[in-house]
## 1
Amino acid sequence: MIKLLRKLHWAWCLFCLFLFFVLFWPFYYWFTRHPRYYGILNKFRTIHSFTAAALSGIFIKFDFTEKLDPKQTYIFCANHTSNLDIIIFCILAKGRYHFMGKEELMKNPLLGIFFKTIDIAVSRESKISSFRAFKKAADNLESGMSLIIFPEGKIDDAYPPILHDFKSGPFRLAIEKNIPIVPVSVTNAWKVMWDDGMKYGTRPGIINVKVHQPILTSILAPENDEVLRNEVFNIIKSKL
């Protein structure tokens, strides 16, 4: 019975997401046409995410170690266990921000329009694709766009999920561009929706998110990227 209810709730979640995607489609189409509209585009992504989640009985509780500066450009790094992580960061991040995610998302019926425009798609198997992706992310950071990245690189098959080693790319980028890194621990999203929800379904609930103190990178040398990576890993893991 519980399994059936979770499947029904998963179907309802998808319906809510698709419903508002269709309603917002004209705005998404227009505001993805040029980078000068990206701030407005993200406001619609925030409304879309919050409303669809709320109608599904899913709410996000943020715990901030310190208040973030809405005018500051950040690199947000978080563990990744659920497709809800995208919704979480559409609510958390402010202003002009973008995601970096796997290349397959370009074919996603909901996210494809974003990963072909504002967001960055990268192939995990291609060094050339990775180089181009981080070059584009660097350019976006210089223009004042915060970056949201999940440095594990994917949602793993383990259930319950465990935190896997981080890729080095975002930490080298943070040092090179002197951008503060914000570690974020998404503690229980997997209990509400693991991965895309297809296997175990979903359920209503409150997702607890710990937003840690930003780590300044201005005093770090490029060769310190591994130290920074390990520090962020341990901070995120401390709240999981």
Note: The helical segments are 2-31, 38-55, 84-92, 112-115, 127-142, 169-177, 189-192, 225-237.
## 2
Amino acid sequence: MASLYAQVQIHDTTLIGEHCVFGFPKEARVRAEQQKPGSVSIGAMVTVGPNCIVASHVVIYEGVHVGADCVIDDRVRIGYDSTVGERTRITYGAYVCDRVTIGADACVAGFICDATTIGDRSTVMGELVHEYTHPHEGWWDVEEAPPVIEEDSVVGYGARVVGGVRIGPRSYVAAGAVVTKDVPPGHVVTGVNIHTPTEQWPGHRLQGLIRHWLSSPGPRVW
């Protein structure tokens, strides 16, 4: 099966830790080879840009592009055909599924389901998952809508975003919250789908972030 691994292009200035795997083949190509040995197809190339740090025990599947100045921490998995924008950090143990798009200057941890989009400068420390409402139809037969996290938003530790919902820009999903409905731009989410406009948020701990959003270039959301 070693011949199934995709080609890899890593910039000379990037540091690679120990026991990393690059270009691991996606399941469809592995299954095709098992059914018809010798019919090896070519996997999409992996590219890692300049000045990145890829720590130890990282697995990066075929077709992944990692932009410049990224940090991929220990024990991270990045699934096939995913894209990681420049200066983004993928923290320890993150599980990024397939076909995920992560913007620039983001910070990502936790579990990120297939085809999720995470915008520039967003932080995702919780779980982004599909609804998984069709388990009887087979693992590969259903394409469920993934979450979309727009730019400058935060999903806190232990928070869970379920299904094809959209978190509007400059919104904050508090630690432990559950989101199953779209979040408008500029809202704080607590509990289960409790939305509070950011300008009405009474807590003092987020006031620094709110002031930063107000003073930074970008779309005004209130």
Note: The longest strand covers residues 21-24.
## 3
Amino acid sequence: MSRQFVTEAVMVAIYGQLLTSPAPVEYIVPYTSLLELYEFQDSTEPLMDNPMDDQHVKRKVSELISYFEEPLNQKKIRRALQMPWAKSLPILFDANTSLIIINAVDTAHYGEYFDPIETELLLTAQRESLPILTDQLDWIHRIIEASVPVHVYDIDDFDFALDGPILNNP
């Protein structure tokens, strides 16, 4: 059985180990998070502090965008966009790793405390009963402060998260 996590598309691009998981894993990614990749690709603002790392990450972002733009993957994504909360068929990266795009809907449930993509991630995690995987410690702290009923793993704890209890009921 594959482990599932809710995450942002940029996390998949930045952290290569997410695409080379030693165990079966599936990432659920809100569509607006995928759109954010285009902003990162075109931005002159660095994503990383180190210029070499920044170039590498921007190259990985471009590769991920190209992969999503392949005809079969585009078709899967477009089908998910036909209804709110619809999910794409799995987009395969290798034998252990796949990604599903979800047409999440920001209902402003958390008001001004979280930005729209954060809200979509939270609502997706709640709706699917899945943990969130992120590298944003400040966001993790805000989730805890707001008592949002979701499980969150720091990307540094990815291996632990793979071994942890499965939270959703398939």
Note: The mean pLDDT is 89.
